[in-house]
Amino acid sequence: MNTDPLDDESYLWDGTGPVDADVAQLQALLAPLAAPPPDDLPRLSLPVSAPLTRVPWRSWLAAAAVAVVSLGAAWLAPRGTGGGDPWRVARVEGTPTIGAAPLARHSAVAAGRWLDTDATSTAVMFVGKIGRIEVAPGSRLRVRTAAPGDHRAELVRGTIEAQIWAPPGQFVIDTPSATAIDLGCAYTLTVDAQGRGLITVQGGWVGFEYDGREAFIPAGATGRTYPGRGPGIPSYVEASAALREAVDVLDLAGDAAAQAVPLAVVLREARPEDALTLWHLLTRVDPTLLPLVVDRLHALVAMPPGVTRDGVIAGDRAMRDLWWDSLGLGTTSWWRTWRQQWNEGR
Fold first, then answer.
1. Is 208 in contact with 182 (CB distance < 8 Å)?
2. What is the pTM of this model?
3. In DSSP terms, which residues pair with 209 in a beta bridge?
4. Does the pLDDT at position 342 exceed 70?
5. Which residues touch 97 (CB under 8 Å, ≥6 apart)?
6. Which residues pair with 159 in a beta bridge?
7. Pick the CATH number of 43-72+83-232 from 2.102.10.10, 2.60.120.1440, 3.40.800.10, 3.60.160.10
8. Higher pLDDT residue, 78 or 21?
């Protein structure tokens, strides 16, 4: 029979079992906060699309400890004075470091300082008042800016899981191969040792951008990024394996000869919902292959009024944007507004 209170979570969930000293101390800290907060305190709400899973009690303990500090700071801070929107980080497992110094339990995160997790450590980072980031082992992440409406971080390696419940455009992650602009969502982002990125979106959608090259990735889709090339071609996780494998080949294919065979696979395998992938091919394939993409996309989602075959083939961006808007995945004008704002803020 296991008698170690660290391994018996029953006290945390229903009040039975061995009393854990840390949990009891946390209860005492939280007790004065049981009453509803004043009207001017922020209220956090998770996106309804976020998956609900039972989180180990140590993660909740770390999150609650930071919440105590954050709530206390909010009550004590002068009202209407402006100022920053600080990030905080809490240790979950192992010994993450902040600025090369071990993170004991939780800490504020100053802009410019690196959070590192080794192979056995994890952490959770609170993005001001707008979201949270779970930082997996082997990751390196830093805050670049932390102000109301202006949250920017940089991930140079490793994996994060982000849940952002702020209005669109308030959170940005830079990677070695692209910038991800959050449009109110939940996603997983991984950067490998070569700087290549992989994003999978669970809710909302994300815009990827690098040197004018764009990718729009909605919930249920995934996309890659490559150093020096930027975002690749997104595809739905539920698309056929043949389509997704062909997309990976197309991402790196350099000319019409290399693109022809994988493109034929994508066009053959595409379902109506895979119009997402075909629309991105309009700016990825060799011009000699573009008519094939336009005709197949039109067969799946007809061109809306104001869009012509010749105009799309000629590269008319307004027509291509109108066609995107007809896919039911949001509007390009929304994306371009936020991208311009963030580019101007660099």
1. no
2. 0.73
3. 179, 214
4. no
5. 103, 114, 115, 116
6. 190
7. 2.60.120.1440
8. 21
